[in-house]
Amino acid sequence: MQRHPLRGLITIFFSPAETFVRAERRPGLIPLIASMLLALALHVMIVEVTGPGGSTLDRIARPAAGVPLTVCVLACVAYGLLRATGGVTTFAAVLGAFAWSTYVVMVVTFIGSAIYLTVVKDFSGVQPHDMQMLNASIFFDRVTTPGWLRSVAASVDLVTYWSLFLQVTGLRRLSAQVSMVQAASVVIILYFVGVLIRAAAAMMVG
């Protein structure tokens, strides 16, 4: 029986391995489009609640076009690292792994943000990672804690770790020959590089 191509948008949450196995020739197309739509919807929701430029939250979803760009950059780097370490894969497969993990993060971000915007009334000084309340930054004071430290703390995040698991699973399932060690090593390297870049950016901003 032929399965609906959009079915993966649901099964990725409780059966990721099956979703990757049943992914079509372009495994990243559907989750990438869905992520862009969620980013746009999130931006509209934030503007409706806080007003245009009404808070720092306005930048969380402003560049919806940045979603596919970010995924493509990560996929390019990961593809190069996998090929350099002897992995047998395609760019489409790597793109699919990162697109699906991004989609999952966007869904959780949208739901968490909707709840946060409903409950909280004062958005002054609130950062995007404050809205999910699933990372270690909630244990640090916004005013007295250095920005770089809160940025690092925000990287200790349950949703992020879930997306890392999906990336590793996707790289293994969609690729012809990529080992667990290869997939995990590439994903972890990219994770820590991202942590360092965000911390450095927060330090420069002050």
Could you characterize the architecture of this molecule?
The structure is a single chain. The protein has 206 residues and is mainly α. The protein contains eight helices and no strands. Helix 3 (29-50) runs parallel beside helix 5 and helix 6 (147-155) runs antiparallel to helix 8 (180-205). The longest helix is centred in the middle third of the chain and has 29 residues, at 91-119. The radius of gyration is 18 Å and the shape is globular. The N and C termini lie far apart (56 Å).
Which SSEs are present, and which pair or pack?
Blueprint: H1 8-11, H2 16-21, H3 29-50, H4 66-84, H5 91-119, H6 147-155, H7 158-174, H8 180-205
In short:
By secondary structure, this protein is an all-alpha fold.
Relevant terms:
8 helices, mainly alpha, globular, single chain, 206 residues
Which class best fits the helix and strand makeup? mainly alpha
Q: What value does the Rg take, in angstroms?
A: 18 Å
Estimate percent helicity. Answer: 55-70%
C-alpha termini separation: 56 Å
Total helix count? 8
Mean pLDDT: 82
Largest sheet: none
SSE order, one letter for each helix or strand: HHHHHHHH
**Can you tell me the residue ranges where pLDDT is under 50 for at least 5 consecutive residues?**
none
Global outline: globular
Portion in beta strands: under 5%
Number of strands: 0
Oligomer: single chain
